[in-house]
Specification:
There is one protein chain. The protein has a single domain, classed as Rossmann fold. It is globular, with a radius of gyration of 17 Å. The protein has seven helices and nine strands, in the order H-H-H-E-E-H-E-H-E-H-E-E-H-E-E-E. The longest helix is centred in the middle third of the chain and has 13 residues. By secondary structure, the chain is of the alpha/beta class. Bound molecules: S-adenosyl-L-homocysteine. S-adenosyl-L-homocysteine (SAH) binds next to strand 2, helix 5 and strand 4.
Length: 237
């Protein structure tokens, strides 16, 4: 077993052992590849990680649909396309250490774990964190460390990170996340108001210079914390 985690089904005997393998393959082809996702490593990871394990049992039949789904505590597991898009923009390499803010269900964490050397993921809701930890353990994903806390402060202990991924909507890029990004690193974050954000890609260049670009609109649940919204903003997702 590989520390990056296994989607047991394929390795244990093909699609017959995973009733969702066909739906997952279709998700990859129709929702992702046909709609512009090009990064083969990302596509392979999306084909590999069993999304149905990460959704609420009530929604398992819809796990591979083209939409976000509600999870516990009023949070969401993002639409597959936006998850793939963020991962593509992040340009994760196999030797990278990645900081993720907003573990949620742990689905995106499992994907990053397949693409990177190590993932450090912070979640503010303890019950979500516990459930995510259990799923990742059950899937045999070993290169992930999870922590309960305010992700707007990052995770200083393991900084700097080659990549930082924020999967909640932020009013601005939190200072600590910039500080914990390595030179040459990339940070992907939805920035904007509570109802609508732009997916922003920030690159840290030598000499603490920064370049950033906006790559399309998105709608995430709010990032709540010290260097973001202090309380749930009106009209949020
Ligand atoms: N990527 C996740 C979806 C995340 S939804 C998945 O694949 O399931 C956004 C998550 O960010 C929620 O779980 C929410 O509780 C969390 N969150 C919001 N503010 C946070 C903060 N300051 N620190 C850490 N997590 C936060």
């Amino acid at each position: 077993m590989d520390a990056r985690g296994v989607s047991a089904p394929r390795e244990q005997g093909g699609e017959a052992s995973d009733p969702y393998a066909v739906a997952r393959r279709r998700m990859v082809e129709e929702q992702l590849r046909e709609r512009g996702i090009r990064d083969e490593r990302v596509l392979a990871a999306m084909d590999d990680v069993p999304r149905h394990v990460f959704v609420d049992p009530a929604f398992v039949q819809r796990a591979y649909g083209d939409h976000a789904l509600p999870t516990a505590e009023g949070q969401t597991i993002s639409q597959p396309w936006i998850v793939a898009r963020m991962l593509e923009l992040l340009e994760v390499g196999p030797d990278d250490r990645v900081l993720e803010i907003g573990t949620g269900s742990g689905y995106q964490t499992a994907l990053v774990a397949r693409l990177a050397a190590n993932v450090f993921s912070v979640e503010r809701v303890p019950s979500l964190l516990r459930a995510a930890q259990q799923r990742l353990t059950d899937l045999g994903v070993k290169n992930v460390a999870l922590r309960h806390g305010d992700g707007t402060l990052g995770w200083q202990e393991y900084a700097p990170y080659a990549r930082v991924l924020v999967s909640a909507a932020a009013p601005r890029v939190p200072e600590a996340l910039r500080a914990q990004l390595a030179e040459g690193g990339v940070l992907v974050i939805p920035v904007g108001g509570p109802k609508l954000q732009h997916l922003e890609v920030w690159r840290r260049l030598p000499g603490d210079r920064w370049r950033h670009e906006r790559r399309g609109e998105c709608r995430f649940v709010p990032l709540l914390g010290h260097d973001a919204w202090r309380e749930m903003p009106e009209g949020s997702a």
